[in-house]
């Protein structure tokens, strides 16, 4: 169901790509595609948008053409900290374009640009090289970084290393910032060839070496709003904290069912409840009951606008920044035990082979009978602890049925070829002040699998229901990997005696079979990691193209509307299809044009949140590891680069051994084989190899750990104490004389008194940098 604008856009682009070999004037283009009366009305608006998006190019002769016919590529710049970058094409057709440092044209990481492709790149095989000729959209208007004074200059070094050079700060732009402060800077002049960007400091977060300040800088760097506006909070406060009687009418009343929630112990936003019973013919009735957020968050409301912009909740080690205010997320929408709640439910009849025989989707009224944690369920079902089984006696029969059904669904999913990576989750424990006190590596167990399989089958069922109706919807799609990536992976497999199927098109089952073959083998870690890195990223999309990783023809996100906006859209679209007025989508929200824009935004916000979460977790990991400088650990190689090897410890912490610290030989980097090989000794370092390292530096502000290799044959080398590779809790303090590691900690454990940022009335800057400038100007 395409809108008039969408049809006209396709008509314009198709004509210029397929029918014309040269740019045209607007008049000739109009005549060629024969505009209708309605199309005439939005012609100017559409052409302006296509020019801004880089889908059309206006030449100096005022003619219109498409980039691909003019040797141009429109896309987003992905910059490297080393100064070069790659333009990733918007249409994902063709390889990325390598941009040398001299040809960036003032563009910064993340900017949308147009580049001219000049020649094949010598930088990498089968690559293209070009130069940026136009910047379509600037992404960074504000930057977080550390303010420094060096000689006669003040500048801010961005926390995001990909942004490149330091940003110059004139005297009038310093405010109360002092050398070494973490600041927020507003860019007032963009970089150009031979000239740095310029900015003014608008806020001082605190000292750069303060862990709390480091966390705040990550939050700001990724544009994550910590607070809600007054208008949003006012609306949230108006939402009743008990289900209104009016809302209960017309719903399936399931308050008699012993529905349970199963989540982590610290979860506060409980948005899914489950129920299982055995019915005739050995079949199961599975009920997946999801919080009905759409009833309370209506389209166009302040709550809705805010949750759209945020896109997702963000989970940091020391806090959660929710998509919706606590009155919604932890209050009326959270499926807390013992209280009435509105739900949107999917009940499925599933046979002994895991096939969904029939289903029903409907609004419900539920009352969760018991809140369970993953730990409780594991202790009851896996560890068979009598005490916990006795405590959960009323629920044990249903829990056993859940375990049975989970195994059936998982077996079916794997049989069809779903790729099942089993990487453990690493969680950093923090105290009440947010300080890292431990690292826990959590393997997925039966309790997590139960919820995972139940949510998967509900999501697939809902997606198939909507896809069969051929109406615009929100899908979770995962495209097939590129043939180039699969060829490279197959070359790596060949070195271990494995090959992909040899088919022209790789299927997910082919990759899953490899994982099964290498299970428990020395190469398992290497091949699993490279396989994962060879796959594309899952995204939200308005049209269905399947989910490669799950080997699923249909997939969506229906099960977490408290913390994901796409799930909220799914609920509204479902309600519209089912003619449920309370919370259905508007006419605009049902249009393909809106859904295409909304799903793209949601995908971007999801990636942004994931990167922020990863960086915050890395910060806390490094913060925790500062106490172990000088100590030794067992680990494995998790990354291989030309400048060194990344080593991951068994507790999930990762650090770098620089190539300059491996002194026994000159090493050559083999990118496709993920290894370094010594030219004289033939010694190899390959992804997945085990080794022992010593921690020599931990820098939280840089999110970086540095290791050196421990050579067991050189016993004369000084050592710190050897720590168990499963470090998880902070050890008790020991005297400095007991180990070199303890001595090192005592040396680094003190810090200079913190400087306070200015407050109250504005004062003249006392920075010595500016005194120096004034003295120099007087002399001149």
Please characterize this protein's 3D structure.
The protein has 780 residues and is α+β, with helices and mostly antiparallel strands. It has 6 domains: 4-67, Winged helix-like DNA-binding domain superfamily/Winged helix DNA-binding domain (Arc Repressor Mutant, subunit A, Orthogonal Bundle); 71-137, OB fold (Dihydrolipoamide Acetyltransferase, E2P) (Beta Barrel), CATH 2.40.50; 142-208, OB fold (Dihydrolipoamide Acetyltransferase, E2P), CATH 2.40.50.700; 245-476 and 546-614, no CATH class; 480-535, no CATH class; 629-748, Nucleic acid-binding proteins (OB fold (Dihydrolipoamide Acetyltransferase, E2P)). It contains 21 helices and 33 strands. The strands form 10 sheets. A 5-stranded mixed beta barrel has the order 3-4-5-7-6. Strands 10-9-8-11-12 form a 5-stranded antiparallel β-sheet, with helices on one face. It has a 5-stranded mixed β-sheet with strand order 13-20-19-16-15. A hairpin with a 4-residue loop joins strand 29 and strand 30. The radius of gyration is 29 Å and the shape is globular. The chain starts with a helix and ends with a helix. Mean pLDDT is 86; it is low at 712-780.
């Amino acid at each position: 169901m395409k809108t008039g604008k969408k049809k006209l856009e396709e008509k314009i682009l198709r004509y210029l790509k397929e029918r014309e070999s040269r740019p045209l004037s607007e008049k000739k283009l109009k005549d060629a595609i024969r505009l209708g009366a309605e199309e005439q009305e939005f012609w100017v608006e559409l052409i302006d948008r296509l020019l801004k998006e880089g889908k059309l190019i206006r030449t100096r002769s005022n003619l219109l053409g498409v980039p691909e016919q003019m040797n141009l590529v429109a896309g987003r710049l992905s910059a490297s900290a080393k100064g070069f970058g790659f333009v990733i094409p918007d249409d994902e057709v063709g390889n990325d374009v390598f941009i040398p440092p001299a040809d960036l044209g003032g563009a910064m990481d993340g900017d949308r640009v147009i580049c001219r492709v000049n020649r094949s790149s010598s930088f990498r095989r089968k690559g293209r090289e070009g130069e940026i000729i136009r910047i379509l959209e600037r992404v960074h208007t504000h930057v977080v970084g550390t303010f420094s004074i060096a000689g006669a200059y003040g500048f801010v070094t961005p926390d995001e290393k990909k942004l490149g050079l330091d940003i110059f700060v004139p005297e009038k732009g310093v405010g109360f910032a002092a050398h070494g402060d973490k600041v927020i800077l507003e860019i007032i002049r963009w970089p150009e060839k031979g000239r740095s960007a310029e900015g003014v400091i608008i806020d001082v977060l605190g000292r750069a070496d303060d862990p709390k300040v480091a966390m705040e800088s990550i939050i700001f760097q990724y544009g994550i709003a910590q607070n809600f506006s007054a208008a949003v909070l006012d609306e949230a406060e108006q939402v009743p904290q008990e289900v209104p009687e009016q809302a209960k009418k017309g719903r399936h009343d399931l308050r008699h069912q012993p529905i349970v929630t199963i989540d982590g112990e610290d979860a506060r936003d409980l948005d899914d409840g489950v129920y299982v019973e055995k019915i005739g013919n050995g079949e199961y009735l599975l009920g997946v009951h999801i919080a009905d957020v759409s009833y309370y968050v209506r389209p166009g409301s302040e709550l809705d606008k805010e949750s759209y912009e945020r896109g997702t909740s963000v989970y940091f080690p020391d806090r959660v920044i929710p998509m919706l205010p606590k009155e919604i997320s932890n209050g009326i929408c959270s499926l807390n035990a013992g209280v009435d709640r509105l739900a949107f439910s999917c009940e499925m009849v599933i046979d002994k082979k895991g096939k969904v025989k029939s289903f029903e989707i409907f609004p419900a009224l539920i009352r969760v009978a018991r809140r369970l944690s993953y730990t409780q369920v594991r202790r009851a079902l896996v560890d068979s602890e009598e005490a916990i089984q006795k405590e959960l006696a009323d629920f044990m029969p249903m829990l056993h049925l859940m375990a049975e059904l989970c195994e059936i669904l998982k077996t079916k999913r794997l049989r069809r070829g779903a790729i099942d990576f089993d990487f453990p989750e690493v969680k950093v424990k923090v105290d009440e002040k947010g300080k890292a006190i431990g690292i826990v590596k959590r393997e997925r167990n039966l309790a997590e699998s139960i919820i995972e399989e139940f949510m998967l089958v509900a999501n697939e069922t809902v997606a198939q229901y909507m896809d069969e109706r051929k109406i615009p919807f929100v899908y979770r799609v995962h495209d097939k990997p590129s043939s180039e990536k699969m060829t490279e992976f197959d070359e790596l497999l060949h070195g271990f005696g494995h090959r992909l199927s040899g088919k022209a098109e790789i299927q997910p089952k082919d990759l899953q079979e490899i994982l099964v073959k290498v299970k428990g083998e020395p190469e398992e870690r290497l091949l699993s990691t490279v396989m994962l890195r060879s796959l594309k990223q899952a995204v939200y999309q308005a049209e269905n193209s399947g989910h490669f990783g799950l080997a699923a023809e249909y997939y969506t996100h229906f099960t977490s509307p408290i913390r994901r906006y796409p799930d909220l859209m799914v609920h509204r679209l479902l309600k519209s299809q089912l003619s449920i007025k309370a919370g259905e989508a508007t006419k605009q929200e049902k249009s393909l044009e809106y859904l295409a824009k909304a799903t793209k935004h949601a995908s971007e916000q999801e990636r942004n949140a994931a990167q922020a979460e990863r960086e915050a977790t890395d910060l806390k990991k490094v913060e925790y590891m500062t106490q172990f400088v000088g100590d030794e650990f067992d680990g494995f190689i998790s990354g291989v680069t030309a400048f060194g090897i990344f080593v991951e410890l068994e507790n999930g912490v990762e650090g770098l051994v620089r190539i300059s610290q491996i002194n026994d030989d000159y090493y050559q980097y083999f990118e496709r084989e993920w290894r370094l090989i010594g030219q004289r000794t033939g010694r190899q370092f390959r992804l997945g190899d085990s080794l022992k390292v010593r921690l020599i530096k931990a820098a939280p502000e840089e999110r970086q750990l540095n290791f050196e290799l421990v050579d067991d044959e050189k016993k004369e080398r000084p050592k710190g104490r050897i720590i168990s590779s499963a470090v998880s809790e902070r050890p008790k303090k020991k005297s400095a004389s007991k180990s070199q590691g303890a001595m090192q900690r005592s040396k680094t454990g003190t810090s200079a008194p913190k400087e306070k940022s200015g407050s109250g009335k504005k004062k003249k800057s006392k920075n010595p940098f500016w005194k120096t400038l004034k003295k120099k100007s007087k002399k001149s």
